[in-house]
Amino acid sequence: MNIDIKSADGIAVASLCGEIDHHNAKEIRRELDSFILSNQPKELSIDFKDISFMDSSGIGLIIGRHKLITECGGKLIVKNPQLYIKRVLKLSGIERLVKITCDKL
Length: 105
Prior knowledge:
With 105 residues, the protein is of the alpha/beta class. The protein has one domain (2-101): Transcription Regulator spoIIAA, CATH 3.30.750.24. The chain has 3 helices and 5 strands. The chain has helices at residues 25-39, 56-71, 83-92; strands at 2-8, 11-20, 43-54, 75-79, 99-101. A 5-stranded mixed beta sheet has the order 1-2-3-4-5, with helices on one face. β1 (2-8) and β2 (11-20) form a beta hairpin. It starts with a strand and ends with a strand.
């Protein structure tokens, strides 16, 4: 799993690459939580464009980061999920908590 976080003026984008499963979700959580707590962004987008696989650990990852960033006064956005991931997110009801967006090509 590769995570690249860019931040400017309180707006951050965390680009993920690889798979999100129970094997690596803890590492992703730790890195994102550390960033949220130390930088307190007003908005954090997690870019799923390069995620090739996600199991239920990804749903837990999103819900936990939403809770943490909301407690810190910010908001979370999920960007560019693959079609099957977007379907899973919609079925889980996450879009009631978190905005899901796709970049225009």
